[in-house]
Design a protein that fits this description.
The structure is a single chain. This protein is of the alpha+beta class and about 350 residues long. It contains 8 helices and 19 strands. The strands form 3 sheets. Strands 3, 4, 5, 6, 7, 8, 9, 10, 11, 12, 14, 17 and 19 form a 13-stranded mixed beta sheet that branches. Strands 16-15-13-18 form a 4-stranded antiparallel beta sheet, with no helix packed on it. A two-stranded antiparallel ribbon has the order 1-2. The longest helix is centred in the middle third of the chain and has 17 residues. The structure holds zinc ion (ZN). The site of zinc ion has 3 residues, from loops. InterPro entries: AstE_AspA_cat, N-alpha-Ac-DABA-like, N-alpha-Ac-DABA_deacetylase. GO terms for molecular function: hydrolase activity, acting on carbon-nitrogen (but not peptide) bonds, in linear amides; hydrolase activity, acting on ester bonds; metal ion binding.
């Protein structure tokens, strides 16, 4: 590995930690818009890992995950380089919005170009200055507005290394996800940067369980990459691995009575929710279309016909899943997330 690591034109030497502002564009207020980047290099050589949050500006859990991560005592024995970016979509966070001011979704604009739209330019700077300088990456997300996700890792599980890193992370569920056009993960994969996506919680909310699970997961991945010393005797929860998931949609418009929660095991045909009219009369029932675990759910008790309500991850071997359900319940109760970083 080269002795010098340069980001945004600023060199960071081994053993150094720097906070760097990565300029993107100048605003019409005659002020600079920059992405804040934290770079920590261990005294000893090792891999380079980026961890980023708030590519969708309203997804806050990852911001907290990164602030806890970079203040963690565990990083004192860092090998290699950690690039942590707590807020990628600075515009979105200012407006408490998923999008950029031009209405674009940054995570559909990668790898971007230097002459493209605002989103495309932002993606380009991030790719050149952060992603292209790393071998590994973890992209932190939450569910959309009024939707919660069970802590889960998404990635290309057909890649054995990504599968191993995903397992090491230790989230309750690991979901095989095909690459999406224009996503950071797709652009990173094209550069052979092995990238995991962590989804947990809801937009515009902090969820402590999701945050602790995220910090612990990143530290676990760093141990797996030998960026941090291994801890002996520590049990990492084996995640449920799913290659298929689908959303169950509302069959009618109305007021929702939720019957099942995040992380619950449901069987095909089982009742998930009831849709009522304002007088309390039942209009429709919503039932699961497969055996699986509830990994995402709307929290808003008002639905239009066709709204996505429950995200169910299916499993090829449901019997194995049932056997491990106790383990999952313990985890969700917080028992396995008690590590203080
Ligand atoms: Zn997101």
């Amino acid at each position: 590995m080269a002795e010098e690591f340069v980001i945004g034109g600023i060199p960071v030497r081994q053993g150094e930690t720097k906070r760097i502002d990565l300029p993107v564009v100048r605003l019409y207020t005659d002020t600079e818009m920059a992405i804040p980047v934290y770079v920590q290099r261990g005294k000893r050589s090792g891999p380079s890992l980026f961890v980023c949050a708030a590519i969708h500006g309203d997804e806050l859990n990852g911001v907290k995950v990164i602030s806890r991560l970079i203040n963690s005592r565990a990083l004192k024995s860092l090998r290699g380089t950690l690039i942590a970016v707590p807020v990628v979509n600075v515009y979105g966070m200012l407006h408490r919005s998923r999008y950029l001011p031009d209405g674009r979704d940054l995570n559909r604009c990668f790898p971007g170009t230097s002459k493209g739209s605002l989103a495309s330019r932002m993606a380009y700077v991030f790719m050149q200055e952060v992603v292209a300088k790393c071998q590994y990456g973890i992209d932190l997300h939450t569910g959309a507005l009024h939707r919660s996700n069970l802590p889960q890792i998404r990635g290309n599980l057909d890649d054995p290394e990504i599968r191993e890193l995903g397992r090491a992370f230790g989230a309750p569920v690991m979901l095989h996800a095909n690459l999406r056009d224009g996503s950071l993960r797709e652009a990173a994969t094209d550069l052979h940067v092995k990238t995991l996506l962590y989804e947990a919680g809801e937009a515009l909310r902090f969820d402590d369980l999701c945050i602790r699970s995220g910090v612990r997961g990143i530290l676990n991945v760093m141990r797996q990459l030998k960026m941090l010393p291994l801890r002996r005797g520590r049990k990492i929860m084996r995640p449920f691995i799913s290659y298929e998931s689908s959303w169950v949609r509302a069959g009618g418009s109305g007021i929702v009575r939720f019957e099942r929660k995040l992380g619950e095991w449901v069987q095909k045909g089982e009742l998930l929710a009831t849709i009522l009219d304002p007088y309390g009369h039942e209009l429709d029932i919503v039932s699961s279309n497969d055996d699986g675990i509830v990994i995402g759910r709307t929290n808003l008790p008002l639905v239009h016909e066709g709204d996505a309500m429950y995200h169910i991850a299916s499993f090829r071997k449901p019997h194995e899943v049932v056997k491990r359900l106790d383990e999952l319940q313990d985890t969700l109760a917080g028992e396995a997330f008690t590590e203080k970083p």
